[in-house]
Every structure is written in C-alpha cells, then in structure tokens.
C-alpha cells in the first residue's frame, strides 16, 4: 500500500489523476474502520489532512463555501449562526473525538444513507464542488447520491467544498437512535424554511438506499403556507397541516428492515420527526428575527 | 514507511510502519506506549483517546502517516513528572472512578482536555465531553465525581497561583 501525502490542492488533484485507485482519507472515521477490520485493502491512501485549502471556509454574497475538510467541531463553533441546520446535525455526529476529525467531505465521499450531514444538505439545496485536473464542476446534493455508498464522483475527482446559502429562515435536524452520542441514525430528518422564496426544503436520512428529499411534502407545505398567507401572518400552523406534512415525508422514504430498526418503525418515526421539526421551525419563525420576504 | 511524530514532548521515530496502520498501533506496538487502549478499533469506545495537536481524537482512526510531524499527547504524558500524577489522575484514584481500568486512559485524556478548556464544567458539559468514552464496569457516577473534583482543585490551584504576588 502507498501512503500519498499531497501538501496542496493542486498536488492532491495531480496525485488523484495519476492514482485514481487511491482512497482519499480525511478524518479517517470511515476509512480507518474499514482498514482496521480488514474490509478494505486499497492500493493507496491519499491523505488530505495536509491540504490547507480544504480546511477553510469563506462567505461571499450570502453563500458559504465550506471546504470539504472542515471538521464538524469547527462547523459547530464557527458556523452555527450562518448554517444552523448543518451545525445542529454536526452536534449529533459521533462524539467529541469524532467531531474533531470527521468532515462533510468525508460524509459525501462515503455517501452512506445514514451520514448525518446529508438531510440538511438536501433541505438547504447545497451544491457539491468537485474537482480534478480536468477542471471543476458542481453537483447539487440531490444529484450527488447515486446508490448505497455510491456518489457522483469520477475516479479522478476529489470533493473540494460544499456551497450553501447563509440561512434566511429556520432550519432543523433531528435523528432517532438508541442514545444521543455515538449513534448511527435509525432515521433522520432535515428541514429548512425558505421564507424569502416561500419554499420548504426537506431531507431524509437512513430510510432509503440514498439520502432523499420528500418533494410531495415540500410542495404541500409550501403551498399551504403561501395560500393561507402564513408566511406573512405568522399564525400558528393548523395541526392537520403538520400531520399531513409528516405523512408525506414518511411516504417519500423507502426504508428496509435491518439491525437498527424495522421499515415500519422508520416510517412512523420519520412522520414524527417531520411533524416535530416543523413545529420547532415554525415556532422560531413566528418569534420573528427572520424576514418574511427578500 | 517511517513515521516521525512528537509524542509527549519527545520526537519519536517508528520504522517499517505499514501504510494502513493506525496511530494507536504505532503508539502501542512500536513506541512502547501501551497506555492508550485498543478495544473497538472503530471510534466507538474512546479508550484510545489521545490529544493530537491539542484535540482529543481516537488514535485508532488516525492513519499513522497522518500523525507525521504532529504533536501527540497520550495518557503517559499527562503527569508532570514520574512521581506526581496529574490532578485528573489523582481525582480518579480518590473518587474510586476506576474498576477494571480499561476505559480509564481514554477518560483521563478526555477529562483532562475538558478541564483545560472549560475550567469548571457543568455536569451537562462533563457528560457531553465524555460521551465518546464507554465504561462497562461502573456506570459513570464515580467518573463524574472525579471530574468535578479535578476541576474544582484545578480552579482553586489557579486562583491561589493568581493570589501569589
């Protein structure tokens, strides 16, 4: 096995072009487990922790460019106000030790349906920036997940960053597991209210072969909020709307029975998570602070 | 490959390191530092917790090559000298926060880091900081007691140092 240690982004792309079989490693929270348990023997590891550019984030024109190598602990500490949904999800990742190492880039690279960042990336219309020596391209999160642990990367490409809007409305994330820490989600749900464009975004984790949105639920709730003038009036949400939203989210999932939970339980739990996070988000919106229209 | 890493303030070299090897393996099997424990090898139990560049991490999830030129502090490096335990170690002994002892090194490193960062942490902060460290013997009450004790002592030691002209 080779251990490849590029010191810059340009060098990392050159190395990946030359060695498309090299497995990128950042926080190691997935890759090292596979190595420790002999599940994987890649011909080479491509260590990205020395590429300083990957560990940076910046903000411009209301968009955050989050380097793929920024660990969850820093997302919590530095981006909680700009990216509240992602920061909430980050707080549920593993343990302090894991959050010091794990990255959104790693979550995307592994593309596990249970990755904690995915539901919020979907709900907030995040865009993944990938690069190779051939150039840079962007892939919406919704098109990035291609199958169980498969993503849209070409063999010579690396994940550079994720682009997200600075939140213009409440965002929420909730997940179900056996305890608060060190839990792989049984199911998870991310929600973003976009009052500026009168839309609602959703993301479902761990309840389909890939992370997925719930388009029917998004359309339903967006229409209810707009048609009843609720964005402007900020009146309480009718219970029937919250319930129907939950049902539509559950219908968008295609869960399986596995060791962590049954398909039926996941569907039920998703409806509860969707209803609950909507309640929290709408309460936050009603309390003000977010403008109704851009 | 050769890996050079600063461990507990000392520059150390390990040769013939396999490229897929973990920092934990290097520490335990090549550098003679078996304090960090090898249990789950998947970041679940925290018994291999070390500080890397000042942050608590699971040594089992750090590839050895990633530790090249980094600063690592293990449980062996917490005490200030051969005859004086660190406050958090003393508190674990006094509070009886050790039963089989396997989780203790990881808990000590995580608790040491917490007290350094948070000073007098609340119970919620202690629970959160130690959420990645599993103990299968005792339950966690004695461990909580030990961390509260170590934090209180560290805080009052700092106060009395400040009082000294």
UniProtKB/TrEMBL annotation, chain A:
Matching Pfam families: CO_deh_flav_C (PF03450), FAD_binding_5 (PF00941)
FAD-binding PCMH-type domain mapped to chain residues: 1-169
Gene source species: Streptoalloteichus hindustanus
Name of this protein: CO or xanthine dehydrogenase, FAD-binding subunit
Highest taxon of source: Bacteria
Molecular-function GO term, any one: FAD binding
Keyword terms, alphabetized: FAD, Flavoprotein, Oxidoreductase
Metal-binding in keyword set: no
Keyword Transmembrane helix among record annotations: no
From TrEMBL, chain B:
Domain 2Fe-2S ferredoxin-type: 1-78
SUPFAM superfamilies: 2Fe-2S ferredoxin-like, CO dehydrogenase ISP C-domain like
PROSITE patterns with a match to the protein in the record: 2FE2S_FER_1, 2FE2S_FER_2
Annotated InterPro entries: 2Fe-2S-bd, 2Fe-2S-bd_dom_sf, 2Fe-2S_ferredoxin-like_sf, 2Fe-2S_ferredoxin-type, 2Fe2S_fd_BS, Beta-grasp_dom_sf, Diverse_Oxidoreductases
Keywords for the protein's UniProt record, in alphabetical order: 2Fe-2S, Iron, Iron-sulfur, Metal-binding, Oxidoreductase
One Gene Ontology molecular-function label: 2 iron, 2 sulfur cluster binding
Record bears the keyword Protease: no
Entry coiled-coil feature ranges: none
Domain of life: Bacteria
PANTHER family xref list: OXIDOREDUCTASE WITH IRON-SULFUR SUBUNIT, XANTHINE DEHYDROGENASE IRON-SULFUR-BINDING SUBUNIT XDHC-RELATED
UniProt-recorded name of the protein: Carbon-monoxide dehydrogenase small subunit
Source species: Streptoalloteichus hindustanus
């Amino acid at each position: 096995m080779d251990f490849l240690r590029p010191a810059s982004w340009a060098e990392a792309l050159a190395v990946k072009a030359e060695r498309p079989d090299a497995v990128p490693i950042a926080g190691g929270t997935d890759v090292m487990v596979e190595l420790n348990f002999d599940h994987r023997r890649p011909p080479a590891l491509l260590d990205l922790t020395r590429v300083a550019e990957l560990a940076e984030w910046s903000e411009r024109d209301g968009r955050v460019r989050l380097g793929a190598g920024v660990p969850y602990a820093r997302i919590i500490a530095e981006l909680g106000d700009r990216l509240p949904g992602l920061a909430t999800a980050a707080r549920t990742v593993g343990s302090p030790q894991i959050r010091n190492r794990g990255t959104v880039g790693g979550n995307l690279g592994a593309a596990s349906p249970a990755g904690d960042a995915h539901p919020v990336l979907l709900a907030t219309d995040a865009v993944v920036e990938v690069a190779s020596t051939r150039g840079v391209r962007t892939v919406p999160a919704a098109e990035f997940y291609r199958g169980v642990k498969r993503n849209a990367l070409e063999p010579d490409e690396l994940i550079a960053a994720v682009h997200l809007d600075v939140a213009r409305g409440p965002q929420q994330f909730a997940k179900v597991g056996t305890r608060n820490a060190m839990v792989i989600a049984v199911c998870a749900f991310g929600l973003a209210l976009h009052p500026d464009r009168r839309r609602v975004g959703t993301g479902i984790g761990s309840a389909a072969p890939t992370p997925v949105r719930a388009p029917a639920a998004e359309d339903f709730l967006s229409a209810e909020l707009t048609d009843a003038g609720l964005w402007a009036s900020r009146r309480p949400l009718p219970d029937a709307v919250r319930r129907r939203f939950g049902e539509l989210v559950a219908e968008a999932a295609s869960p399986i029975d596995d060791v962590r939970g049954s398909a039926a339980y996941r569907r039920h739990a998703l409806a509860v998570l969707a209803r609950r996070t909507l309640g929290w988000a709408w309460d936050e919106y009603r309390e003000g602070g977010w403008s109704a229209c851009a | 490959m050769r890996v050079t890493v600063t461990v507990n303030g000392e520059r150390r070299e390990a040769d013939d390191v396999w490229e897929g090897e973990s920092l934990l393996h290097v520490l335990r099997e090549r550098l003679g530092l078996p304090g960090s424990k090898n249990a789950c090898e998947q970041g679940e139990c925290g018994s291999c917790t070390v500080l890397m560049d000042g942050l608590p991490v699971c040594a089992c999830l750090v590839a050895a090559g990633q530790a090249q030129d980094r600063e690592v502090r293990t449980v062996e490096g917490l005490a200030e000298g051969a005859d004086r335990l660190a406050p958090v170690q003393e508190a674990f002994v006094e509070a009886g926060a050790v039963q089989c002892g396997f989780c203790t090194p990881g808990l000590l490193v995580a608790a040491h880091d917490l007290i350094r960062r948070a000073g007098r942490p609340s119970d919620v902060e202690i629970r959160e900081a130690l959420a990645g460290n599993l103990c299968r013997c005792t339950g966690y009450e004695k461990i909580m007691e030990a961390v509260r004790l170590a934090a209180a002592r560290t805080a009052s030691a700092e106060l009395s140092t400040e009082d000294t002209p």
